[in-house]
Records
---
Amino acid sequence: MDNSIFLLIFSLLLLQSPISASNLHKLKQLRSDFHSQEQTFPSSSSNAIPPTKFFEVTKPIKLPKGKPCSYNVLTHDFAFTYGKPPVFANYTPPSNCPYQSFSKIVLEWKAASKGRQFDRIFGVWVGGVEILRSCTAEPRATGIVWTVKKDITRYQSLLLSNQTLAVSLRNVVDGTYTGIYHVHINVHFYPHESKVETLASGSEIPADLILPISKNIPSDNGFWFEIQNSTDKGLKEFKIPQNAYKAVLEVYVSFHENDEFWYTNPPDSYLNANNLTDTPGHGAFREVVVTLDKKNVVGSIWPFTVIYTGGVNPLLWRPITGIGSFDLPSYDIDVTPFLGTILDGKVHSLGFKVTNALNVWYIDANLHLWLDRKSSRTEGKLVNHIAKPLVESVVSDFNGLNGTFSISAKRSILSNGWVRSSFGNISTSFVQDLTYSSSMVIEKNGDKQTVNQIISFNDSVHSKLPSHVHNFISETQRTFSLNLDSDTLDKGNGTYLAVANITLGFDENKSKNAASGFSKSSLKNVQDGQGTMVVKNNLVISGVGATQQEYKYKSKGFCYFRKVSASNYTILYDKVRKLCNKRLNNGSHSGSASLFFL
Ligand SMILES: *[C@@H]1O[C@H](CO)[C@@H](O)[C@H](O)[C@H]1NC(C)=O
Ligand SMILES: *[C@@H]1O[C@H](CO)[C@@H](O)[C@H](O)[C@H]1NC(C)=O
Ligand SMILES: *[C@@H]1O[C@H](CO)[C@@H](O)[C@H](O)[C@H]1NC(C)=O
Ligand SMILES: *[C@@H]1O[C@H](CO)[C@@H](O)[C@H](O)[C@H]1NC(C)=O
Ligand SMILES: *[C@@H]1O[C@H](CO)[C@@H](O)[C@H](O)[C@H]1NC(C)=O
Ligand SMILES: *[C@@H]1O[C@H](CO)[C@@H](O)[C@H](O)[C@H]1NC(C)=O
Ligand SMILES: *[C@@H]1O[C@H](CO)[C@@H](O)[C@H](O)[C@H]1NC(C)=O
Ligand SMILES: *[C@@H]1O[C@H](CO)[C@@H](O)[C@H](O)[C@H]1NC(C)=O
Ligand SMILES: *[C@@H]1O[C@H](CO)[C@@H](O)[C@H](O)[C@H]1NC(C)=O
Ligand SMILES: *[C@@H]1O[C@H](CO)[C@@H](O)[C@H](O)[C@H]1NC(C)=O
Ligand SMILES: *[C@@H]1O[C@H](CO)[C@@H](O)[C@H](O)[C@H]1NC(C)=O
């Protein structure tokens, strides 16, 4: 039992927390301690070793022509920040820019660290509106650097006025955990190419107003609500202008501590039968439910299984980090059908709950609102709202610590309503269909665990415009897949060999049919990782991780393919192709050589 997976992943690691275990959020990561090995370099040559560059594979941001106006919003060293307020900076829009209208705004997070440190979750807010949620990379003795670039154009309405920028990154620095995070945040404003005033019915036009659905006053842990259990609730009161004609709630979620690996949690019946009191349970299904005025379920989120840079085996994520770990996905819920309910000029509330939750989930949201410039009042009505209760089934078959578990869940939510503005009387329906299935096998008295999980998550927005031939239709299909096999072998003397293989997939198809035309994109992003590590006294004393990733993004006129592989910190191959033309994909084609960057 001593060396069971549960103890390895879940509780042994509690001990390494430098403060008290219950205070820290990153409890379950191992830290690799190759310090002694790396310190065999004389210090002078050690300084000469260039830092390792960590990265998340993602498509580059499509930038307009022209030089951006760039400026540095924050430069800060995050040393011992635990228990201290977030770091604040004055944000001002660019004033000495030759143009004042922007088509793209890009946030650039650049960081460096050296030494030994956990992965830390962090958030960046502008006026209480979260614009980036991310996780730090775990440093090495020889140092690391990484950069995250994010298209923040959708937050434009905020970014054009003076604001307060806040960053919460709770770090602990002491004799053991030496890594300080040296951070630069830059914002780049790209000029407008052409300007067209159109109805923002789902087109890419940023909202006119964004309301923070986050804590009014941040704790040292930022503006997010901290959901501790399935009855706990994050609740925010808000009021909207009475001339809104479209509303989208963007939700950010991340899971930590006892729920960091929620998808591996066994059911409580198994834990109870085996007297496992310290192992996180509540099964392997989680759902974030969003409610309006404490009653209407406006949407549901079945989140992607982001694995942070210290998760499962930290060596898997060096230097290719896990999908979504440097830029956690946010999830959009179209709440336009509910505008009729909230256009009354009164205070309403949005609430967040997490089904089966264990501590702790960080959740907050941004309410994007599009306003009717030609009238001070719009009106609307919710016509239909069907949110059937969640259907969850768990089939358990176990004998002692060995067992198999099948979990499935299903949910669909539909809302339909009309809003009359100067654009006319527009009926909008928003539909979410979600399915979940997981099979978990536990063998070797708990030492070996296999998890195969698939989340399928579709949503659609249909808008009927009165006088337009084209209705607006937007559909998104997502499949999140996770296969995780882990095994531990007792090596005696408090030492274990841990082996883990993982496949993590994020697939997304989007289509949009609007008056402006039809557009479509697809993304297939999959990572395979194989890791081994020898763990002693909660320290990774040796090991190796290898990761292969294939990223394929296609849309009309913009494609991006990347195949990259790394093992033991070294890139084995890295092929990038940016052209959509399939013919050029033929490796033997004479023109292909210049398209690959090895
Ligand atoms: C925004 O901040 C700048 C710099 O502090 C200041 O000069 C300017 O007057 C402010 N603008 C507004 C509208 O408050
Ligand atoms: C759930 O969490 C809240 C907030 O921490 C706490 O007040 C409440 O007692 C908890 N409920 C249960 C059943 O543990
Ligand atoms: C669990 O604890 C109870 C009461 O202490 C004991 O009777 C039972 O045998 C234990 N079961 C296992 C599997 O250890
Ligand atoms: C808007 O259209 C719906 C049907 O699509 C109708 O029921 C409603 O009365 C209309 N509202 C106004 C103000 O015309
Ligand atoms: C999502 O849409 C696809 C294509 O229409 C369908 O095959 C799949 O079953 C849908 N998934 C859910 C959860 O409804
Ligand atoms: C659990 O499975 C292992 C092999 O994986 C076996 O050696 C052990 O006896 C099994 N335990 C029980 C209680 O069946
Ligand atoms: C996306 O579309 C492709 C091609 O139609 C299909 O094979 C794939 O399963 C779809 N992915 C999702 C997430 O629905
Ligand atoms: C991981 O993959 C390797 C190579 O494919 C295999 O030998 C090993 O048994 C796998 N380990 C686990 C725990 O699945
Ligand atoms: C076990 O660890 C102790 C103390 O670290 C050491 O003295 C002993 O030699 C180790 N035994 C084995 C078999 O490695
Ligand atoms: C990993 O790389 C280090 C340094 O280059 C080397 O010493 C070590 O032997 C490698 N490990 C494996 C398993 O290849
Ligand atoms: C790739 O190019 C070679 C040489 O031009 C040709 O023989 C082959 O059929 C092509 N393969 C594909 C899949 O197009």
---
Amino acid sequence: MAETCRRKLEASVLLLSFFFQSGIIILISSECSVLLYETMEKYAVKRRNSPQSLQQQRCLNNGTCQAGYTDKGFSCKCPYGFTGAFCSKACSFDFEDGIADWEMTGRAFIYQPTFGDNPTYRRRESANLQGDWWIGGAEKRPSESDTAGVQHSNGPDVPQGTLTSPCFRIVGKNISFLIGGGCDLGNVRAELIVDNQVVRNETGNCSETMFRKSWDVEEFIGQYAQVRLVDESSGGYVHINFDDLKGDIICPDDLDEIN
Ligand SMILES: *[C@@H]1O[C@H](CO)[C@@H](O)[C@H](O)[C@H]1NC(C)=O
Ligand SMILES: *[C@@H]1O[C@H](CO)[C@@H](O)[C@H](O)[C@H]1NC(C)=O
Ligand SMILES: *[C@@H]1O[C@H](CO)[C@@H](O)[C@H](O)[C@H]1NC(C)=O
Ligand SMILES: *[C@@H]1O[C@H](CO)[C@@H](O)[C@H](O)[C@H]1NC(C)=O
């Protein structure tokens, strides 16, 4: 897993040198461009051609250019919901497009994501989901046309398993998410994994309702991470509900993560 993250990091460094060598560099405001050159020297990337046709561009999405800040030498200060060196849209995992890029083990998550506020059809408390889709470990409503209110065929709490996010990069202090379901941290939890170590964890409140929780991740800025949902018991009220992981993170696919 850490290896996967490392490979992506190496690929992004190659991409960085490609951009510098081909001289296709999109710069932000002039103040930032001077600093970007310093950054290039720091990365010891050799440019073959001097870039003649530099396109001047400001921070995206109303971000403002700031000197200092991180090892990058500069940063765009981004409005909420935008992040990265150029304030592209922050990466988030809200399950509106499924979980195809998450890695699954076991059976706990085979019916995920769940459509709609499924527990309410059983007269249970609202899941407090974001959007239409979420991870409801006890639920079985994998499409809108499936019967509402139905639970996992193995029983709501019996199946066990893990669900691990793609790698993302931590670029600021705060990661937050909605979490609900069981409340036994030893058996059911969300984990933040950095460099193969579980560095943060959180569990629900023994209620189907998800509450927003956050992790202070300042000490991991610049590092790659993953979130893993863990259900390792068949005991009563051991399932996890989870949604809308977001914050100061950028996805490896975002071009601006090379900075
Ligand atoms: C940027 O600011 C302008 C003016 O306040 C606003 O109209 C526009 O929607 C903003 N753009 C973004 C992407 O937030
Ligand atoms: C982290 O972000 C969440 C969501 O915006 C917010 O509720 C929480 O207060 C933030 N935590 C800190 C320490 O800023
Ligand atoms: C949860 O995190 C805390 C603090 O890092 C740690 O002491 C504890 O062992 C973790 N628990 C589990 C079950 O991972
Ligand atoms: C957790 O559950 C208790 C009891 O139902 C409730 O009073 C409390 O507000 C909940 N809070 C959070 C943040 O989980």
